[in-house]
């Protein structure tokens, strides 16, 4: 027993100090693509052709990125002959609407908070039923990490429950395969109103690498209404946590949007 107490003493406080301070991210952390249209060669579409999920589109006003489709894979940066595509260290990626995940140069964090009535209901206590709708276990693993001592999700009043009848909403991962669509719809029907849906990861938002496959439904919105989108493949635990707390109004919007992101830009070259 004494050895256990000594080991615990030497370990110290293991829970992250975020959101009081900015998170410490590895210099290998890869955020969303940053596009510098001024470096794009005329007629060049190498990044568009390289993207495995068609997350980049070339328009008259310049290239655009759909962060809901992006896999953060660096194929676009590797293919760009002029270095116009890099990745930054932004982790605050959640958005309330699907359209807000579209951007031209670099992604800007958005305000996420629910309206006052819903925030009053769920702001201090949110019970979620997690549904893996055909996921690869990448997003599922990073969601589960939030229950560890490092993040301690329960201290914010957010908990995962075993039954949808005990839940305030669903947290969905995976592209929603044909085999899981009916199960997801039944789970959603079992959650008492008012209720919420949070789509976590590129698969749950758009189908991810499986987009367009006949056995995939291209995301949670094909079966249920989505209230919060958290992109990534998989999203970092801080990305998920930031999305959840911003959604519940537990982060001051001004502080959240102005908080400096530590680390250096990620370059694949």
- Computed Rg: 19 Å
Range of helix content: 25-40%
Would you identify the CATH architecture of the domain at 116-258? Answer: 3-Layer(aba) Sandwich
- In the sheet with the most strands, the strands line up as 7-6-8-9-10
How many strands in all? Answer: 10
Low-confidence stretches: 263-269
Q: Which percent band covers the strand fraction? A: 5-15%
Q: How far apart are the termini? A: 51 Å
> SS-based structural class?
alpha/beta
CATH class assignment of the domain at 116-258: Alpha Beta
Q: What is the string of SSEs from the N terminus onward?
A: HEHEEHEEHEHEEHEHEHH
The overall average pLDDT, rounded, is 90
What's the number of helices? 9
Give the overall silhouette: globular
Largest sheet: 5 strands, parallel
Q: Predict the CATH topology of the domain at 116-258.
A: Rossmann fold
Descriptive report:
The structure is a single chain. By secondary structure, the protein is of the alpha/beta class. It has a domain of 143 residues: Rossmann fold (3-Layer(aba) Sandwich). 26% of the residues lie in helices and 15% in strands. The chain is built from nine helices and ten strands. The chain has a five-stranded parallel beta sheet, sandwiched between helices. The chain has a three-stranded antiparallel beta sheet with strand order 2-3-5, with no helix packed on it. A two-stranded antiparallel sheet has the order 1-4. Helix 6 links the parallel strand 8 and strand 9. It is globular, with a radius of gyration of 19 Å.
């Amino acid at each position: 027993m004494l050895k256990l107490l000594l080991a615990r003493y030497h370990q110290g406080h293991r829970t992250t100090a975020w959101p009081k301070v900015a998170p410490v991210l590895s210099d290998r952390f890869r955020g969303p693509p940053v596009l510098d249209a001024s470096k794009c060669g005329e007629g060049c579409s190498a990044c568009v052709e390289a993207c495995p999920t068609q997350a980049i589109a070339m328009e008259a006003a310049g290239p655009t990125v759909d962060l809901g489709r992006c896999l953060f894979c660096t194929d676009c940066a590797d293919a760009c002959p002029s270095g116009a595509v890099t990745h930054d260290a932004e982790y605050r990626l959640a958005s309330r609407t699907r359209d807000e995940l579209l951007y031209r140069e670099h992604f800007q964090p958005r305000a996420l908070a629910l309206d006052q009535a819903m925030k009053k209901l769920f702001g201090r206590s949110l019970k979620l039923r997690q549904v893996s709708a055909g996921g690869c276990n990448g997003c599922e693993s990073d969601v589960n990490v939030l229950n560890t001592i490092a993040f301690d999700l329960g201290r914010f009043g957010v908990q995962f429950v075993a039954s949808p009848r005990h839940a305030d909403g669903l947290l969905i991962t995976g592209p929603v395969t044909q085999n899981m669509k009916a199960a997801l719809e039944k789970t959603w029907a079992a959650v008492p109103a008012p209720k919420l849906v949070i789509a976590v990861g590129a698969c749950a938002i758009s189908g991810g690498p499986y987009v367009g496959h006949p056995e995939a439904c291209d995301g949670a919105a094909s079966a249920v209404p989505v209230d919060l989108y958290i992109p990534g493949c998989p999203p970092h635990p801080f990305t998920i946590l930031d999305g959840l707390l911003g959604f519940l109004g537990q982060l001051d919007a001004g502080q959240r949007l102005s908080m400096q992101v530590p680390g250096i830009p990620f370059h694949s070259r």
